[in-house]
TrEMBL record:
UniProt-listed Pfam families: EII-GUT
The entry's keywords: Membrane, Transmembrane, Transmembrane helix
Superkingdom per UniProt: Bacteria
Listed GO biological process terms: phosphoenolpyruvate-dependent sugar phosphotransferase system
The protein's name: PTS system glucitol/sorbitol-specific IIC component
GO cellular component terms, A-Z: membrane
Taxonomic classification: Bacteria, Bacillati, Actinomycetota, Actinomycetes, Micrococcales
Chain ranges passing through the membrane: 45-71, 92-114, 165-184
Length: 235
């Protein structure tokens, strides 16, 4: 009995015997083995996502929706409009809020709060932040989480205690980079507008933007006045 078990163990340790010496048969065997191996690896990756990052994404999305509901869309909109006033907040706080709250690609729609000449720079800042943001907010760009997973895989394998530091540096460097890109792209946009003789065209865009902003503010003031009057009438 012992000899049979030894024979089985010895056979299991031996490399598999080729099915045939024919190279065509060997190629077909290799293809069949790796064909099913591809789907096995895909299944293992899917199980890893379902038990790993997917619950985190669902919880983060639920938390962000609850936070927006609690704060209110009007307050969030006013915060974005406030951050659009100065360059240092326009290319740091504004894209950060846009990417975390609206996620990729809806984050770019916050550009509607900016004049035409500043929209390219805001887009450049926002699109440059969709990868660093995944270090702490993977829900913001879940479709490209593999970038951060690839960056952090080595650190997780050999120095997992350094993982929070790497995430912090990745996130912080992203903020510095989007600020620089926003400033440079805005400067390039102004240069191109001037060189192509479109200064008057964009000045007209700015006047249209100012008039549209005034109409929105007047509409909100009218709604607040009517709401206050109706509340006093009810009392």
């Amino acid at each position: 009995m012992q000899s049979v078990l030894d024979a089985i163990i010895w056979a299991a340790d031996e490399p598999p015997v080729p099915a045939s010496d024919n190279p065509i048969i060997q190629a077909l065997t290799w293809g069949a083995t790796n064909f099913i191996g591809l789907f096995n690896a895909s299944g293992e990756a899917l199980v890893g996502l379902v038990t790993g990052i997917l619950p985190t994404l669902i919880v983060l999305l639920t938390f962000m929706y609850a936070l927006i509901t609690w704060i209110g869309e009007d307050r969030m909109t006013r915060a974005v409009q406030w951050s659009a006033r100065w360059a240092i907040t326009r290319y740091t706080i504004m894209p950060i809020i846009a990417v975390i709250v609206l996620t990729n690609p809806m984050a770019y729609s916050f550009g509607v709060f900016l004049p035409e000449r500043q929209k390219p720079a805001f887009y450049d800042s926002a699109v440059s932040f969709v990868h660093p943001v995944t270090a702490f907010f993977p829900h913001a760009n879940a479709g490209e989480i593999f970038v951060w997973a690839g960056v952090s895989a080595g650190v997780l394998a050999y120095a997992p205690e350094k993982y929070p530091l790497l995430a912090l540096l990745y996130f912080g460097t992203g903020i510095i980079v989007i600020f620089i890109r926003g400033i440079v792209t805005e400067w390039i946009t102004k240069l191109l507008i001037r060189r192509q003789g479109l200064t008057e065209v964009f000045d007209e865009y700015d006047r249209d933007f100012a008039r549209a902003t005034e109409r929105v503010m007047a509409s909100k003031a009218g709604k607040q006045t009517r709401s206050s009057a109706s509340s006093e009438g009810a009392v």
